Structures are given as structure tokens and as C-alpha cells.
Amino acid sequence: MGEQVVKVRLEKRRFGKEVTIVEGLEGSGFDLEELASKLKSKLAVGGTAKDGRIELQGDHRMKVKKILVEIGVPEDNIIVIY
User: What is the span of the domain harbouring residue 40?
Assistant: First the structure.
């Protein structure tokens, strides 16, 4: 994993919808499609992996951080943006 910084942030979309964005995982040995699928099933939400980032419906920043730590991303390398 190295010193790769993973950013977890919230983005507001049309009609007030919130989307949790996970960036910085490309090139880190993780399969984005597989990781997105795992996050979606653990959080019971819809989402997608595209353009080197994962998008999840709703605000799940702290839960995503916890799951990323569980799968082996160093906690110090995860930045949650509020």
C-alpha cells in the first residue's frame, strides 16, 4: 500500500442527494469493482466504481473508514473530509 492517501468525502448531487466518494485506491492492489461491491453489500446501498473512485449513495464516511481499516488500509492513510 505504501504512503497512498485515501480520501473519503461527501458530495452533494442534484435534488439534495448525498454521495460518499472514496478516492486514492487506484494502483494500490485493490480491485475497485470488487471493493465497491463489498462496500455496497456491507452498507446495503447502491453505488458504482468509475474513473478510479468509488461512489456510494448516502453519507457513509465513518462506516467506510472502518471497513477500509478492516480490509488492510492503514488508518493513518485514510483522510475523512467533513
Answer: 6-80
